Amino acid sequence: MNSNNLPPITEEKIDIERRRLLASGGAIAIASGIMLYGGGAGAREKGQPATSAQRWGMLIDTTADKSIWDTVVTACKREQGWGGGNNPATDPQWVRKVSIKNKSTGAEATLPVMCQHCANPPCVDVCPTGASMQRADGIVLVDKHICIGCRYCMMACPYSARSFVHEPVHNQKPHMPRGMGTVESCTMCVHRVDNNQQPACVEALEAKGSKAIIFGDLNDPDSEISRAVSAHVTRRIREDLGVEPGVHYKGI
Amino acid sequence: MASIDKNTYKEVSGNGGDYLSLIAWLGVFAVAGIGSAFYMETQGHVVTGMTNQIVWGMPHVFAVFLIIAASGALNVASMSSVFGKKIYKPLGRLSAIMALSLLAGGLLVLVLDLGRPDRLDVAMLKQNFKSIFAWNIYLYSGFFGVVIVYLWMMMERRFNKYSKIAGTFAFVWRLALTTGTGSIFGFLMARPGYDAAIMAPMFIAMSFAFGLAIKIIFVTSAYRATARPLGDKLLFQMRNLLGIFIAAALYFNIAQHLTNLYAPEHMGVEMFILLDGGIYTILFWVGQILLGTIVPMTLLFHPAINRSCQSINAASMLVIIGGIIQVYIIIVGGQAYPMDMFPGFEVTSTFFDGSIHSYTPSLPEIVLGLGGVATALLIMMLAVKYLPILPASLSDAAIGPANITTDEDA
Question: Confidence band (pLDDT; 50, 70, 90) for A20?
């Protein structure tokens, strides 16, 4: 079953935190361990639309201990309310741990794969109704209200990042409406990002003292992620397809 | 300028026990199909064999088969109206009716398989024009309009003179429609089994064969059941045409596989289909190639047997079966082979990355697909009862000399 042990983050708490954040004018770490992104390119007034001033992305360090990726999967399940089914072939998986082994050298790595939030997302191109959509800040989402469940986006996604909800869903989170017969995938925790917080997986890793995923604004040259991707050679999965994913990997 | 259609068309009486029981059976299947869809919608797609890896299954096989057969069924009308092959003129009306029926059956299955078929209005009102699916909404609904007008021009004697222009427009539209259907797969860049421009023309060649095979069976069955004369002249013309269409579909298939075999990146999926893909390899060689191509071509072209109606009907039936198998290989086989997310690496995960994906069609899916077939046939059966669609005679005398080509003939 879903593990919903963490207390939900209330709107009130978020507002208080956002005010503190706006007052500080920069990214601050609060006592609970939540890293808030504010100021500069990161801050956006509540209610204002996302803009292309930001390009949210992630840098994943595949050299991290592979057991740490379970933390990512668990945090995502807890935050978004998926998981807990008994049908591996049909249960949704917003993020999964993928193991790879070089066929010629035998070198191995383990890494989390989720929606890569492409700049040129095939899922958005093929969606007949526009339910598959891309925000101006690069986050790719499914509008559950107009998804007709045709699954063409799942056919088009190079990363198998999307799941179709095959069964009735229970215990939905207020911030994440889900519905049988529609398609879903990683939202990069858009509800948190819009409140100047980090995605749940990143926060869960940091709570364990891991920086295996860095989240941030790729458009902001001073952001931690921008500095990291400019300092290290990173790869994006199937870069050859030209879809320009927003998720970078280090170490593969 | 254009000639008036001098054939006599007559509704079938449709009062016999055979007709009524066939209608009843088709009705049962159509209702069962809708019932299946309701079951799938209320219980969720978990009751189907489809998964997060094989996201399109049996309903799509039936739907795509019916949709491409629909455009192909129109072809016999086009042969007369567009290409001036007078011999096919008597079947013009039936071609249009079959095209409409098959498309309706296919779309019914496609729509009822949606995760949220109740949101069909959303698909009509909110469209992303970059999506080939959205284009198809226009191509499919437009096809109904274009073919209905074409049918009207053929059926209304005063408007016969416009049937050539209406037929030409319908012919171009049907080419666009099948291109759109093939491109659903051709545009999928990440899947090694698809992602090829040849999907569009291959689907067109397939449509010619599937549509004509269904037409031959319908015509021979209807004329036998109604004791109307059907001469060899027209039957043998259709036989020859079917043989050519099968060869054309095979040509595109060979071109596709040869091209893929030349590219190392596509070698995996090619080996999967052609050599070591288990059921898919068997389906390809035994189903599509042997039963769907070689045997029917032998039946149609071997002089010792190709003059019998049974041979031609058997060949047509095999083309249909082989066609469904071919569409199954394309749709299901194309998904069963895993996407190469990390070229050069072995990949494993809880989401079955890197594994051959398994798929077992479930009864509700198959019943839904058969419901679409039954709906298409039901519409055809009712149309020939209530509309003057079928010529009173297709005897050699009624047909006139074969192979007459005239620009005037509409």
Answer: very low
E strand map for chain A? 28-29, 35-36, 56-61, 95-102, 108-114, 132-134, 140-142, 163-164, 183-184, 213-217, 247-250
If pLDDT is split at 50, 70 and 90, which confidence band does B265 have?
Answer: confident
Give the predicted TM-score (pTM) of the model: 0.91
Per-residue burial over A44-57, b = 16 or more CB atoms within 10 Å of its CB, e = otherwise: beeeeebeeebbbb
Exposed/middle/buried for residue B211 (C-beta within 10 Å: 0-12, 13-18, 19+): buried
3-state helix, strand, coil in chain B (%, to 5): 70, 5, 25
Residue A236 and residue A250: Cα distance in Å, rounded? 9
Phi, psi of A146 (to 5 degrees): -120, 5
Query: d(Cα A37, Cα A27) in Å, to the nearest integer?
Result: 4
User: Which domains occur in chain B, in start order?
Assistant: 4-119+131-339+355-399 (1.20.1630.10)
Cβ partners under 8 Å of residue B10, min gap 6: B388, B390, B391, B392
- On whether any CB of chain A is under 8 Å from the CB of B122, the answer is yes
d(CA B135, CA A88): 34
| Cβ neighbours of A10 (radius 10 Å) | 10
Cβ of A241 under 8 Å from any chain B Cβ?
yes
The predicted model gives B149-162 an average pLDDT of 94
Q: What pLDDT was estimated at residue B5?
A: 78
Determine the residue among A94, A129, A241 to mutate to test chain B binding: the one whose Cβ has the most chain B Cβ atoms within 10 Å.
A129
> Pairing state of beta strands A140-142 and A132-134?
antiparallel
Task: Please name which of B24, B89, B91 lies closest in space to residue B374, comparing C-alpha atoms.
Answer: B24
Q: For B318-356, what is each residue's pLDDT tens digit?
A: 999 999 999 999 999 999 999 999 999 999 999 999 999
- Mark which residues 365-394 of B lie under 8 Å from A by CB: none
| ipTM confidence score | 0.93
Mean pLDDT of chain A: 87
Which residues is A236 bridged to in the sheet?
none
How many CB atoms sit inside 10 A of residue B308's CB?
A: 12
- The pLDDT of residue B329 is 97
Which of B130, B141, B346, B349 to substitute to test the interface with A, most A CBs within 10 Å? B349
